[in-house]
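Regression test attached.
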Amino acid sequence: MVVPEEFVTMAQTYRVLSGLDPQQLRKLLPIAQDRKFSNGEVIFREGDKSSFFHLIVSGEVALEETAGNRPVRVQTLHPGDAMGWSALSEDARTHFQARTLSPVTTVAFPGARIREACNLDPAMGYAFLKQLLELVTERLDATRMQLAGRSGNTHPAPAH
Amino acid sequence: MSFEVPGKILEEYTVRNNRLGLVEFGDTCRPIFLDLVPDAKIGDYVRVHVGFATERVGAEEALREYKALQTSGHMQTVELDMEAEEALPATTRRQKQR
Protein backbone atom coordinates (compact mmCIF):
# COMPACT_ATOMS: atom_id res chain seq x y z
CA MET A 1 0.00 0.00 0.00
CA VAL A 2 1.33 3.44 -0.92
CA VAL A 3 1.50 5.69 2.13
CA PRO A 4 0.54 9.31 1.34
CA GLU A 5 3.35 11.79 1.91
CA GLU A 6 1.49 13.62 4.69
CA PHE A 7 1.67 10.52 6.90
CA VAL A 8 5.39 10.08 6.33
CA THR A 9 5.90 13.77 7.19
CA MET A 10 3.81 13.40 10.33
CA ALA A 11 5.79 10.36 11.49
CA GLN A 12 9.06 12.21 10.87
CA THR A 13 7.91 15.38 12.66
CA TYR A 14 6.73 13.52 15.75
CA ARG A 15 9.55 10.97 15.83
CA VAL A 16 10.72 11.91 19.34
CA LEU A 17 7.31 10.94 20.72
CA SER A 18 6.27 8.27 18.27
CA GLY A 19 9.46 6.34 19.00
CA LEU A 20 8.29 5.69 22.57
CA ASP A 21 6.32 2.60 23.43
CA PRO A 22 2.60 3.13 24.17
CA GLN A 23 3.02 2.81 27.95
CA GLN A 24 5.71 5.49 28.00
CA LEU A 25 3.75 7.70 25.67
CA ARG A 26 0.69 7.51 27.93
CA LYS A 27 2.77 8.96 30.75
CA LEU A 28 4.12 11.85 28.69
CA LEU A 29 1.09 12.93 26.68
CA PRO A 30 -1.01 14.24 29.58
CA ILE A 31 1.59 16.93 30.28
CA ALA A 32 1.94 17.94 26.63
CA GLN A 33 0.17 21.04 25.33
CA ASP A 34 -0.47 22.55 21.92
CA ARG A 35 1.12 25.98 21.60
CA LYS A 36 0.90 28.39 18.72
CA PHE A 37 2.92 31.50 17.95
CA SER A 38 2.46 34.20 15.37
CA ASN A 39 5.05 35.30 12.83
CA GLY A 40 7.87 37.32 14.43
CA GLU A 41 6.97 36.35 17.99
CA VAL A 42 9.76 35.76 20.52
CA ILE A 43 9.14 32.38 22.15
CA PHE A 44 11.90 32.86 24.72
CA ARG A 45 14.75 35.30 25.24
CA GLU A 46 18.41 34.59 25.86
CA GLY A 47 19.00 34.16 29.59
CA ASP A 48 15.35 33.44 30.41
CA LYS A 49 14.62 30.71 32.88
CA SER A 50 13.29 28.13 30.49
CA SER A 51 9.75 27.00 31.29
CA PHE A 52 8.88 24.90 28.27
CA PHE A 53 10.56 22.33 26.12
CA HIS A 54 9.08 22.44 22.59
CA LEU A 55 8.87 20.08 19.64
CA ILE A 56 8.16 22.06 16.48
CA VAL A 57 5.17 20.75 14.54
CA SER A 58 4.95 23.42 11.87
CA GLY A 59 6.70 26.63 10.86
CA GLU A 60 10.28 27.84 11.27
CA VAL A 61 12.12 29.33 14.24
CA ALA A 62 15.37 31.29 14.32
CA LEU A 63 17.70 30.72 17.25
CA GLU A 64 19.57 33.97 17.79
CA GLU A 65 22.50 35.26 19.77
CA THR A 66 21.55 38.66 21.17
CA ALA A 67 24.72 39.77 22.94
CA GLY A 68 25.66 42.39 20.31
CA ASN A 69 23.68 45.29 18.90
CA ARG A 70 21.75 43.11 16.52
CA PRO A 71 20.54 39.52 16.93
CA VAL A 72 22.72 37.05 15.00
CA ARG A 73 21.01 33.92 13.72
CA VAL A 74 22.78 30.82 14.94
CA GLN A 75 20.42 28.22 13.57
CA THR A 76 17.06 27.82 11.83
CA LEU A 77 14.78 25.18 13.28
CA HIS A 78 12.16 23.28 11.26
CA PRO A 79 9.26 20.89 11.95
CA GLY A 80 10.55 17.90 13.89
CA ASP A 81 13.26 19.95 15.66
CA ALA A 82 13.27 20.62 19.39
CA MET A 83 14.02 23.79 21.34
CA GLY A 84 14.11 24.94 24.95
CA TRP A 85 16.39 22.13 26.12
CA SER A 86 17.28 24.04 29.25
CA ALA A 87 13.77 23.38 30.56
CA LEU A 88 14.88 19.79 31.04
CA SER A 89 17.40 20.75 33.70
CA GLU A 90 16.52 22.60 36.86
CA ASP A 91 17.50 26.28 37.15
CA ALA A 92 19.08 26.31 33.69
CA ARG A 93 18.67 29.38 31.51
CA THR A 94 18.26 29.60 27.75
CA HIS A 95 21.40 30.19 25.70
CA PHE A 96 19.67 31.78 22.73
CA GLN A 97 16.63 33.76 21.78
CA ALA A 98 13.98 31.87 19.79
CA ARG A 99 12.00 33.96 17.32
CA THR A 100 9.45 32.66 14.84
CA LEU A 101 10.00 33.17 11.10
CA SER A 102 6.43 32.15 10.26
CA PRO A 103 3.35 31.08 12.21
CA VAL A 104 4.55 28.20 14.40
CA THR A 105 2.84 25.39 16.24
CA THR A 106 4.58 23.24 18.82
CA VAL A 107 3.92 20.43 21.25
CA ALA A 108 5.19 21.93 24.50
CA PHE A 109 6.11 20.28 27.79
CA PRO A 110 6.37 22.32 30.99
CA GLY A 111 9.93 21.76 32.23
CA ALA A 112 9.00 21.01 35.84
CA ARG A 113 6.34 18.48 34.84
CA ILE A 114 8.59 16.65 32.40
CA ARG A 115 11.41 16.42 34.98
CA GLU A 116 8.92 15.10 37.53
CA ALA A 117 7.59 12.51 35.05
CA CYS A 118 11.14 11.35 34.21
CA ASN A 119 12.04 11.09 37.91
CA LEU A 120 8.92 9.06 38.65
CA ASP A 121 9.61 6.67 35.79
CA PRO A 122 13.34 6.57 34.97
CA ALA A 123 12.80 3.96 32.23
CA MET A 124 10.41 6.30 30.45
CA GLY A 125 12.78 9.21 31.10
CA TYR A 126 15.68 7.25 29.62
CA ALA A 127 13.65 6.30 26.51
CA PHE A 128 12.57 9.91 26.01
CA LEU A 129 16.08 11.30 26.46
CA LYS A 130 17.43 8.65 24.08
CA GLN A 131 14.99 9.81 21.40
CA LEU A 132 16.05 13.38 22.04
CA LEU A 133 19.71 12.47 21.83
CA GLU A 134 19.16 10.98 18.37
CA LEU A 135 17.50 14.21 17.36
CA VAL A 136 20.39 16.30 18.71
CA THR A 137 22.90 14.09 16.92
CA GLU A 138 21.03 14.51 13.63
CA ARG A 139 20.92 18.27 14.15
CA LEU A 140 24.60 18.40 15.02
CA ASP A 141 25.51 16.40 11.92
CA ALA A 142 23.41 18.73 9.76
CA THR A 143 25.16 21.76 11.28
CA ARG A 144 28.59 20.23 10.71
CA MET A 145 27.71 19.50 7.07
CA GLN A 146 26.57 23.10 6.69
CA LEU A 147 29.80 24.43 8.21
CA ALA A 148 31.89 22.05 6.12
CA GLY A 149 30.06 23.24 3.00
CA ARG A 150 30.96 26.81 3.84
CA SER A 151 34.61 26.00 4.47
CA GLY A 152 34.92 23.77 1.39
CA ASN A 153 35.50 20.54 3.35
CA THR A 154 32.97 18.11 1.90
CA HIS A 155 33.83 15.16 4.17
CA PRO A 156 33.36 16.28 7.78
CA ALA A 157 33.68 13.73 10.57
CA PRO A 158 30.26 12.67 11.89
CA ALA A 159 29.15 14.12 15.22
CA HIS A 160 28.85 10.69 16.86
CA MET B 1 -3.11 19.28 17.55
CA SER B 2 -5.92 18.62 19.94
CA PHE B 3 -9.62 18.74 19.24
CA GLU B 4 -12.76 19.50 21.19
CA VAL B 5 -14.64 16.61 19.71
CA PRO B 6 -13.79 13.02 18.80
CA GLY B 7 -12.78 12.33 15.21
CA LYS B 8 -13.73 9.49 12.90
CA ILE B 9 -11.04 7.23 11.40
CA LEU B 10 -11.34 7.19 7.61
CA GLU B 11 -8.09 5.52 6.48
CA GLU B 12 -5.22 3.65 8.10
CA TYR B 13 -1.50 3.39 7.27
CA THR B 14 1.68 2.03 8.81
CA VAL B 15 4.79 4.21 8.73
CA ARG B 16 7.90 2.60 10.22
CA ASN B 17 6.60 1.16 13.51
CA ASN B 18 3.70 3.57 13.83
CA ARG B 19 0.06 3.19 12.94
CA LEU B 20 -1.50 6.38 11.65
CA GLY B 21 -4.98 7.19 10.51
CA LEU B 22 -6.69 9.88 8.50
CA VAL B 23 -9.17 11.22 11.02
CA GLU B 24 -12.17 13.42 10.22
CA PHE B 25 -13.10 16.36 12.48
CA GLY B 26 -16.09 18.28 11.25
CA ASP B 27 -15.20 19.17 7.68
CA THR B 28 -11.44 18.68 7.91
CA CYS B 29 -9.26 15.58 8.06
CA ARG B 30 -5.86 15.16 9.75
CA PRO B 31 -3.26 12.42 10.06
CA ILE B 32 -3.29 11.15 13.65
CA PHE B 33 -1.22 8.53 15.48
CA LEU B 34 -3.30 5.47 16.41
CA ASP B 35 -0.66 3.55 18.41
CA LEU B 36 -2.46 4.13 21.71
CA VAL B 37 -5.77 2.78 20.45
CA PRO B 38 -4.85 -0.62 19.01
CA ASP B 39 -8.49 -1.75 18.91
CA ALA B 40 -9.69 1.26 16.93
CA LYS B 41 -10.48 0.58 13.29
CA ILE B 42 -11.80 2.47 10.29
CA GLY B 43 -15.19 3.98 11.11
CA ASP B 44 -14.47 4.26 14.86
CA TYR B 45 -14.35 7.56 16.74
CA VAL B 46 -11.29 8.57 18.78
CA ARG B 47 -10.40 11.40 21.12
CA VAL B 48 -7.19 13.21 20.10
CA HIS B 49 -4.56 15.06 22.13
CA VAL B 50 -1.42 16.65 20.60
CA GLY B 51 -1.65 14.49 17.47
CA PHE B 52 -2.25 11.14 19.20
CA ALA B 53 -5.55 9.32 19.53
CA THR B 54 -5.79 8.59 23.25
CA GLU B 55 -9.07 6.69 23.55
CA ARG B 56 -11.91 5.21 21.57
CA VAL B 57 -15.30 6.83 21.89
CA GLY B 58 -18.62 5.20 21.01
CA ALA B 59 -20.34 6.56 17.90
CA GLU B 60 -23.38 7.62 19.94
CA GLU B 61 -21.27 9.57 22.41
CA ALA B 62 -19.26 11.20 19.61
CA LEU B 63 -22.40 12.28 17.75
CA ARG B 64 -23.94 13.52 21.00
CA GLU B 65 -20.85 15.69 21.58
CA TYR B 66 -21.02 17.10 18.06
CA LYS B 67 -24.70 17.83 18.51
CA ALA B 68 -24.12 19.48 21.91
CA LEU B 69 -21.46 21.74 20.42
CA GLN B 70 -23.69 22.68 17.52
CA THR B 71 -26.63 23.36 19.82
CA SER B 72 -24.60 25.51 22.19
CA GLY B 73 -23.13 27.42 19.28
CA HIS B 74 -19.67 26.26 20.25
CA MET B 75 -19.09 24.27 17.09
CA GLN B 76 -16.90 27.25 16.25
CA THR B 77 -14.50 26.03 18.92
CA VAL B 78 -13.66 23.14 16.64
CA GLU B 79 -13.29 25.47 13.70
CA LEU B 80 -11.06 27.82 15.68
CA ASP B 81 -8.86 24.90 16.45
CA MET B 82 -8.68 24.23 12.73
CA GLU B 83 -7.66 27.84 12.15
CA ALA B 84 -4.92 27.43 14.70
CA GLU B 85 -3.56 24.69 12.51
CA GLU B 86 -3.38 26.93 9.46
CA ALA B 87 0.34 27.15 10.00
CA LEU B 88 0.65 23.44 9.24
CA PRO B 89 2.24 22.64 5.91
CA ALA B 90 -0.26 21.77 3.20
CA THR B 91 0.91 18.17 3.23
CA THR B 92 -0.34 17.68 6.78
CA ARG B 93 -3.80 19.05 6.06
CA ARG B 94 -6.42 17.60 3.88
CA GLN B 95 -9.84 19.03 3.29
CA LYS B 96 -12.67 16.58 3.34
CA GLN B 97 -13.34 15.70 -0.25
CA ARG B 98 -16.43 13.60 0.05
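Expected vs. actual: identical. Residues 122-151 of chain A form the longest helix (30 residues).
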